């Protein structure tokens, strides 16, 4: 969500202005674009203007896709420029709401952690893990930061490992263990004259950088394109050549589920579904200078929608409705084994 490019190379104010203009052109993506704009303003150290962007979204007449994410980002930003009481009140509100999206939990917990509220951060991470992962056989990719953050804070508090910490260790793929990465004594080694200690710290830092780069390499989900029945009918009426890709709507839905399960079985993390519309697809084809009847555009269109923040995580959370729009629970619909 937050740009990672150094302010030395990016004019963050100009980038925020560009994103604001783009949001005006694509109101359906305004939430995603304005959150990026606010992040650039934070990097430019213009935190009051960033707060104004968050307030603009929260006061919008258009319902937000993730209001708790906006509230969490607003709280973290407010605390950074002296509005601690308001930030804490928002954080408590986010915790009380128990959102199903892991991102707001991680943001408010890390905000507490960065301001040395370690016990509150540990409690917040634990609430998130309990709420999101109880009775879940395999933690979704988006929940990994919850477990890693909880492990880090508990290590700083000197608490013994529990089942959630063991799960975090299992999910962690770096050659350097989480216990080493989250060791509170690491900072001491930075002032050491012992070459062996310095070399060990360099190895840990390289492992951390590798994990960070891996996360950045997939900033949005690997997404499969979904057409609702009316949209698919309109698409095939306008572009009959695509009928080879979509013999029927039922087969289209079955193919989506099968493809995602195959990707998951191969170890691909961070999977999602994007929903297409014919006008949006035609506009994308025009921007590419290609015909909408060209089937090779379909995966590019899906990737573009995912990059614009339109992807919904797959599989759905426990008890959630099926992604296909049937209105039934996922476990009773396409989630049946």
How would you characterize the overall build of this protein?
With 337 residues, this protein is mainly alpha-helical. Helix content is 59%, strand content 4%. It has helices at 12-25, 30-43, 47-58, 67-80, 84-97, 102-114, 118-133, 144-157, 163-171, 178-181, 186-189, 195-216, 229-238, 249-265, 278-287, 297-307, and strands spanning 222-226, 271-275, 312-314. A three-stranded mixed sheet has the order 1-2-3, with helices on both faces. The radius of gyration is 22 Å and the shape is globular.
Properties at a glance:
4% strand; 16 helices; 337 residues
Q: What's a concise summary of this model?
A:
This protein is mainly α and 337 residues long. The chain contains 16 helices and three strands.
**What is the end-to-end distance?**
34 Å
Question: Overall mean pLDDT score?
Answer: 85
Secondary-structure content class: mainly alpha
Whole-number radius of gyration?
22 Å
The share of residues in extended strands comes to: under 5%
- Helicity, in percent? 55-70%
Shape: globular
Contiguous runs where pLDDT drops below 50 for at least 5 residues: 1-7
Q: Counting H and I runs of at least 4 residues, what is the number of helices? A: 16
Q: Got a strand count? A: 3
Widest sheet, order of strands: 1-2-3
